[in-house]
Write a structure and sequence with these properties.
The protein is of the alpha+beta class. It contains 4 helices and 3 strands. A 3-stranded antiparallel sheet has the order 2-1-3, with helices on both faces.
Length: 95
């Protein structure tokens, strides 16, 4: 089963959160609606700014662990390569 590695932000260059899921649209919706209690709801981190799809969820988990070890500036550069305007990519998922 495949999976996604994703990064959420509360605003451009703001607070970041990295996670994994097998359903990126559902999971992002859960963050947006505050269904996921904890860090993302507390800091209003619900803007999907980056994601990658993997054929195997284990690869998405490995990528999450890798990126979580990165310096913040590296994460920002990763986001800017895919999404230079820091648009909320959630709205592009169902197109």
């Amino acid at each position: 089963m495949g999976g996604y590695f994703y990064i959420l932000a509360n605003r451009k260059n703001g607070t970041l959160y990295a996670g994994i899921t097998n359903d990126i649209a559902r999971r992002t919706y859960e963050h947006k609606e505050g269904f996921i209690k904890g860090f993302t709801s507390r800091y209003k981190v619900h803007k999907l700014v980056y994601y990658e799809f993997y054929d195997y969820i284990e690869d998405a988990i490995a990528r999450e662990k890798q990126v979580k070890e990165w310096k913040r500036v590296w994460k920002i550069e990763l986001i800017k390569k895919m999404n230079p305007d820091w648009r909320d990519l959630y709205f592009d998922l169902n197109k």
